[in-house]
Amino acid sequence: MTARAVNPLDRRYALLGVMLIAPAVLIFCAVIVYPLVSALYLSLFRIFTPTLTGNFVGFANYAELMSSPEFWRSLLNTFIWTVFTLALQIIFGVAAALMLNQAMVFRSLARSLILFPYFVSTVVAVLVWRWLFNDLYGILNHTLMWMGVLSMPLDWLGSMPNAMVSVVLVGAWKYFPFVVIAVLARLQTIPEQLYEAATIDGAGAWGRFWDVTLPQLRDVLIVVILLRAIWDFKEFDLIYLLTGGGPIIATQTLPLMVYKEAFGLNEMGRASAVAVAMMLVMLVFMIVYFRALRAREEPR
Amino acid sequence: MRPSLLRRVAFNLLAWAVVFVVAFPLVWMVITSVKPQFELFRIPPTFWPEQVTFEHYARLLWETPFLTYMRNSLILSTATTILVVAVATLGAHSLVRFRYPGRERLAGLVLFTYLLPSVVLILPLYLMMVWLGVANSLLSLVIAYTSFALPYALWLLRSFMQGIPDDLENAALVDGATRLGAFFDVILPQALPGIISTSLFTFILSWNEYLYALVLVNTDAARPLTTGVMNMLISAFNIEWSLLMAASVMMSIPLIIIFAFLQKYLTRGFGAGGVKG
Question: Which of A60, A212, B12, B180 is found 20 to 30 A from A77 (Cα to Cα)?
Answer without folding.
Answer: A60
